[in-house]
Amino acid sequence: MSAGDGHADLLVRDIDWLITVDPGRRILRDAAIAVKDGRILAIGKSAEMATTHAGAKEFSGRGMVVTPGFVDCHLHSSFQLSRGLADEANAQSFLFDRMYPYEAALEAEDVRVSATLAASELLRHGVTCFIDPGNYHPEASVEGVMATGIRMLVSRSSFDLTKSVLGILPERMIETTAQALERAENVLAQHGKTKNPRLRTTASFRGLNNASDELILGLKALADKYGTLLQTHACFSYSTHDSSLARCGMAEIERLEHLGVIDERMLIVHSGWLEPQEVAILAKRKASLVCAPSSSLHNGYGNFLMGKLPELMALGVNVALGSDHASSGIVDMVQEMRSACCTYKEVRANPRLMPPETGLEMATINGAHAAHWADRIGSIEAGKDADLVMFDTARPEWQPLINPVSNLVYSATGDSVRHVFVAGEQVVRDYRLTRIDENALYREVPQAVARFSKKLPIDKMNQLRWPVS
Ligand SMILES: [Zn+2]
Predict the structure, then answer these.
(1) Which of 184, 341, 370, 430 has the CB geometry, 3.0–4.6 Å to 320, for a possible disulfide?
(2) In the CATH hierarchy, which top-level class contains the domain 10-67+380-433?
């Protein structure tokens, strides 16, 4: 612990509980964080730090639990307007009857509204960085998301097989392998050179069933060329597992291994339906995995029932956390932590599995490693950027406050996030965004819904079962 050299321009002081998630996993009482030019200069005891950094602008952490900004490793920013359109659907129906038609109906302006709304909800719940698996209007996503102050890893979504065992893609989403690769590279080339320190890129294919080997290999080559992640959904339901066996004679992770694309720069989302040899492959190749609890719980995909994430973590595999999409309801990493920890306890009938510290690691430092951004984010320690979340404990869910990690994971929700900083900039103040007029944004939502709804069988999709008069 050090009071730090040089003078801070911001001192967050009198913090009741500071949960650092640093290498020693220290929790400090009566703590302070000194920040200079957006970067953490030092952490330490408040009284000492106040003397060392006298003159810095002060911000009170009294009554607060402070954590690192959460890293949501899987969130579709274009799906934010789909709440209520994809309930009670199995994997095939969710994708081919609901979400792909929804996605194909969106114009760039709708995606901008959706992405702004998604980033707003993420920030309000303490997420300071997220990875987007991509859509067909990535520029609109970047415009909407960057306006809020959050960090983002953007990509363009890719498919090149029109038909799979699961269904046929909407016409607007159909493209050749060459088109998909060229469009993906455009995003990597444009934003790889960006001067915006909060924006990075990834290469992405949306799943294995509608992706050819040529597309997967081409995207891997692009990821290597631009030094980015390669991400995909995989193994998220019985149907994706079974259709891979039917079409390729191999399970999904086996196919990726056969193609030689799995390494530490790969991000695999879900990974619930794994055969024993696939567990061995993932343990050997050290890809990062993303647990996405709410989408599996909402749609009954079986990722917890079949999942091996506790075993994979014990084998040294990095497992992060993702909220996936608003189609499943919550976009709240605090609730996702609870779901990940408690659901594994339940399906294994084992209370020792997944303690709350593991949930918090998945949501912070593991996510930073998965994003390959852990040199700057994921924990509160000198040298990293000041991405801070401040939970107000003057609320019932934080009483009594004996073990703050327990309260955070088992009792709280993201609704008790009062202040959020990204690189030392306050982007949430007293529960509201500082850069965005939230009420103006909410007024844009029904207009966007009215635009895309005209192109969809909306009454069939929303399944409102009770009479409305
Ligand atoms: Zn997803």
Answers:
(1) 370
(2) mainly beta
